């Protein structure tokens, strides 16, 4: 996930360099409200962690805050910020499993869900390639609340979007900064407790702006 973050930074540098030479479009909309839906992957910084594929849905909002097409971005989203675990063999791992009804037959991969609400806060710059096609690199932070583990996380958010008239698509990453703890009951009637783990995720979504 760190490699993905570095790649986004490298991709963003020429875009942001070009942005400062891009004149504000006189037809720039003052604000947008839209719906988003897509897919994401979530994982933890553990050797045993595997990517969990999750749906992403939400409402997005932005507001133009300068004479140039610079926007304040926010919204509210649902995403499962959990993970999958595999091969618990390391004696010093920080994941502990308790089987109240005995060891399950299929113990290769286990899923730990953390259904969460996310509120991103950041800035985006709208680069008008044409009057209808707009490139929108964005950067900021996010606040998430885990409905499952009842924990709060704060992290970095980076990505790029593209609008085609009222239609929109984006790709980005979230990097959690607060170590997560908690115990969650999952399949096979057993529990997984996670301690001192950082969460990270990536997402791809499409949407429509009203």
Query: Taking strands numbered 1, 2, ... along the chain, how are they ordered across the largest sheet?
Result: 1-3-4-8-10-11-12-15
Query: What's the helix-strand series?
Result: HEEEEEEEEEEEEEEE
CATH topology: Porin
State the low-pLDDT regions, or none: 14-24, 88-96
What's the story with the biggest beta sheet?
8 strands, antiparallel, barrel
The CATH architecture category equals: Beta Barrel
How many runs of DSSP E, i.e. beta strands? 15
Counting structural domains, the number is 1
- Briefly note the structural class of the backbone: mainly beta
Highest CATH level, the class:
Mainly Beta
Provide the gyration radius in Å: 19 Å
How many angstroms separate the termini? 33 Å
Kindly report the average pLDDT value. 81
Mind sketching the topology for me?
Layout: H1 2-19, E1 31-44, E2 49-50, E3 52-64, E4 70-80, E5 83-86, E6 95-98, E7 109-112, E8 115-125, E9 127-128, E10 133-146, E11 152-164, E12 167-176, E13 180-186, E14 190-197, E15 199-209
Antiparallel strand pairs: 1-3, 1-15, 2-5, 3-4, 4-8, 5-7, 6-14, 8-10, 9-10, 10-11, 11-12, 12-15, 13-14
């Amino acid at each position: 996930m760190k490699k993905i973050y570095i790649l986004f930074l490298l991709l963003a540098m020429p875009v942001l360099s070009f942005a400062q030479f891009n004149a504000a479009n006189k037809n720039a909309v003052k604000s947008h409200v839209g719906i988003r839906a897509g897919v994401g992957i979530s994982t933890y910084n553990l050797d045993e962690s595997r990517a969990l594929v999750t749906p992403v849905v939400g409402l997005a909002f932005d507001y133009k805050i300068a004479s140039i097409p610079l926007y304040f971005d926010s919204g509210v989203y649902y995403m499962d910020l959990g993970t999958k675990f595999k091969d618990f063999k390391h004696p010093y791992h920080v994941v502990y499993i308790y089987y109240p009804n005995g060891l399950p037959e299929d113990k290769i991969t286990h899923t730990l869900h953390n259904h969460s609400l996310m509120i991103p806060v950041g800035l985006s710059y709208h680069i008008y390639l044409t009057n209808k096609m707009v490139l929108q690199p964005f950067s900021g932070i996010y606040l998430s609340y885990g409905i499952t583990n009842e924990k709060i996380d704060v992290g970095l958010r980076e990505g790029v979007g593209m609008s085609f008239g009222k239609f929109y698509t984006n790709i980005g990453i979230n990097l959690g900064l607060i170590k997560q703890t908690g115990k969650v009951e999952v399949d096979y009637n057993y529990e997984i407790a996670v301690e001192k783990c950082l969460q990270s995720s990536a997402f791809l979504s499409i949407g429509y702006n009203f």
